């Protein structure tokens, strides 16, 4: 079969690899009908998430059809259409039973203290071959796979594999409640779904901070009050628009891709770092001069500075191990609550799927591009460059 395979930093290929099979009793093999490219995949390609193993199949979002099941899978039969959650969980350990599926004791082969296991990630997460492939082996399929009703399209379902649940989790971490004013940093797919999720939770106002015109336009279409950080200081603007208070809740939906804040060191910047630094340091740029390096990310700095005293900061933007800097003093002196983590996808997908099936929300407008699977490498290039109309990309096999 064909699959997107990681060979090194900046080197991914569409390779012929062996078809997967059932290895354990609770495995299933899924024929992938739609997968997607996520910003987290770019971390693997760029090397900002280290520890990738050559030969690992990338991707952690998929919708497909069950082809085969192990004898321990008693709730699914071949032919069933399903969503594959991005993170992997056994459903039996104390963490899974408490809803912390992303911290399953048994899914990560490195042991109970190893943390999240997900498809297509670095060695520390498994590694477990990913979902940008024609077929995929799904461990613990009896708990992981979620059946999809015929009324929900692949375009809708693929957004429930990762980014919609992750955004919903972000608003839960930030404790978004009815009447709240919320600021979301990043208008990528997760950030846009944070806007949607905040309003579904009853937020009164939602700001969204980015600089890409197409993404800010999408945010406005979702009723967000948009702020272009290349044209104005987002913290000062938020404080002004909230009459000097700041927002009740902030969400960092950017993570490691964000520029570093001013107390940074001198480590090499990513391509996005350099691009953002150029904007922020360019002619007419507001506020202080920011530099790339080892300090706290710009997104988390803005999130801490823009939130009101005694507010809450939720972090769902991806940060790899080794990212240790955080504006602790500012957060402590404002009595802030900080919550972060990997989404417990299996715990949220059924509820969100119900919202979609009943027509309460249609996630598909955030899916801006469709590509055939054989054009995946070109799609990665457009997505990496954040080209217009490439905000979220679905791959059909």
Could you explain the architecture of this structure?
With 397 residues, this protein is an alpha/beta fold. The protein has two domains: 2-162 and 343-396, Quinone Oxidoreductase, Chain A, domain 1 (Alpha-Beta Complex); 164-340, Rossmann fold, CATH 3.40.50.720. The protein is built from 13 helices and 15 strands. The strands form three sheets. Strands 3, 4, 5, 6, 7, 14 and 15 form a seven-stranded mixed sheet that branches. It has a six-stranded parallel sheet with strand order 10-9-8-11-12-13, sandwiched between helices. Helix 13 links the parallel strand 14 and strand 15 (393-396). Helix 5 (163-173) packs across helix 6 and helix 8 packs parallel to helix 10. Residues 263-293 have low confidence and may be disordered.
